[in-house]
Amino acid sequence: GAVVSQHPSRVICKSGTSVKIECRSLDFQATTMFWYRQFPKQSLMLMATSNEGSKATYEQGVEKDKFLINHASLTLSTLTVTSAHPEDSSFYICSAFLGPGNTEAFFGQGTRLTVV
Amino acid sequence: KQEVTQIPAALSVPEGENLVLNCSFTDSAIYNLQWFRQDPGKGLTSLLLIQSSQREQTSGRLNASLDKSSGRSTLYIAASQPGDSATYLCAVGTGNQFYFGTGTSLTVIP
User: Are A81 and A19 in contact (CB under 8 A)?
Assistant: First the structure.
């Protein structure tokens, strides 16, 4: 089946630094990728929709200047958490659809971010 | 906005028992519904995808049903095994995004 690879799986960073998370579609081209965040004991919440070659669409309440999304190619989207704070510690996960008209979602393995 | 609820939040059963997980959603205008499994600290594994025109899907010991008009889906797990222990999430697809429930944490006791 389709594979979405996310890297790194775990990262610990100091407050004030930036962290980049990569999401790759390994055997298909993804014009659209999605970034979710999951806090402990809570559901996954959509942060933004990443569109190849254009600006990402952010959900209400998500700071676009803090969570920078770049979708430079059909197989790679990146999420950069800038000036990270402890409250940004969370589980971040990306997903992609196989293509236009295909609405089955495939998810990356997720990234556990801890800001100390 | 679509709201997805999963009941129960946690479930503990002895090995071999059949069980049902419930998912309800508020807006019946959906594209599909997908059930996932999430192991602690890990990503999501897709279990079953039901298109809006379908009533159920089966994969091995798993059977998922969808009643779009009443806003409900169930995931039936037959002959549960300790390896089934995980959090099960349902997600309602609108065509361009998914709305997730908070999950049911399942523990199967050997």
Answer: yes
Render pLDDT for B54-78 as a digit per residue (tens, 0 to 9).
999 999 999 999 999 999 999 999 9
Q: Which residues of B touch A112 (CB under 8 A)?
A: 41
Q: Which residues contact B29 (CB under 8 A, 6 or more apart)?
A: B94
Cβ pair B32:A112 closer than 8 A: no
Residues in CB range of A94: below 8 A, 6 or more apart: A4, A6, A21, A23, A33, A34, A35, A36, A77, A79, A107, A108
Phi, psi angle pair for A31, to nearest 5°:
-75, -25
Bridge partner residues of B64 (DSSP): B57, B75
The whole-angstrom distance between A83's CA and the closest CA on chain B is 24
| Residue A83 DSSP symbol | S
The DSSP bridge partners found for residue A81 are A19, A67
